[in-house]
Amino acid sequence: AQRVTQPEKLLSVFKGAPVELKCNYSYSGSPELFWYVQYSRQRLQLLLRHISRESIKGFTADLNKGETSFHLKKPFAQEEDSAMYYCALRANTGNQFYFGTGTSLTVIP
Amino acid sequence: GAGVSQSPRYKVAKRGQDVALRCDPISGHVSLFWYQQALGQGPEFLTYFQNEAQLDKSGLPSDRFFAERPEGSVSTLKIQRTQQEDSAVYLCASSFYEASGASSYEQYFGPGTRLTVT
Hints:
The complex is a heterodimer. Chain A is mainly beta. Chain A has no helices and eleven strands. In chain A, strand 5 and strand 6 form a beta hairpin. Chain A is globular. The termini of chain A are far apart. The model of chain A has no long low-confidence stretch (mean pLDDT about 90). Chain B is mainly β. Helices cover about 0% and strands about 45% of the residues of chain B. In chain B, a hairpin with a 6-residue loop joins strand 7 (about 65-70) and strand 8 (about 75-80). The chains are: A mainly beta, B mainly beta. Chains A and B meet through strand 6, strand 9 and strand 10 of A and strand 4, strand 5 and strand 10 of B.
C-alpha cells in the first residue's frame, strides 16, 4: 500500500514566486514525516523533519494530521532551490522509512 | 570527516551473474540502511542493521538478496542470479542513533551504486 504520495512529478515556478510541494501519507499511529532533497549530482540529504518544527533554507512544512498531509512550502523560490524533493515517513517501528516518488522542482529565472 | 561511501559507483552485470555492493558508513554510526531506487521512483527500504545485527529484512524482494554487516561497520549487499528487474540505484544510509529510539534522527546517504543488468 502506498504510504506516501507526492502527486506532482514535476513542478515549475518562477523565481520569487511561492512554492508548495504536496505530500500526503497513509499510516495508522503517529508517524514521523521528513522532507529530503537531492540537488543535481549530489546525494540525498535531509531538508527538514516535522518533529523539529524548523525552517531550513526558507522552507517549512506543517504536519496536518486531519488531512494527513505534510506539504513543503517556501514563500519566495530561489534558483538554487531547483532539485528533487522526497517526502518520507518513518514508521512506528523506527527502522522503516517510506519515501514518496519525488517531485522535481525547477525554479525559472 | 568522510561521509558514507559506496562502491562500485556503477556496475553492469549480465543476467544471472552475482554482484556484491559495498557500503562504508560514517565511523561510529550504529544504524545502517539499504534502499533500492528504481528509475523514477523514490527509495524503497530493503533492510536495516543495528551494529552487526540485521533487525529488519522485510524489504528484501526475494531470497536472491542478502545483506551482511559482520563487524558492525562495513556492509555488503549481495544479489545472486541477477535479473533485469534488479536494475536500480542501491542506496546505503547510516545514522548515529538506533532506529528504535524515540527521538527523531538523521540518515546520511551515500552516493549510491547504479546497477544495470543486461
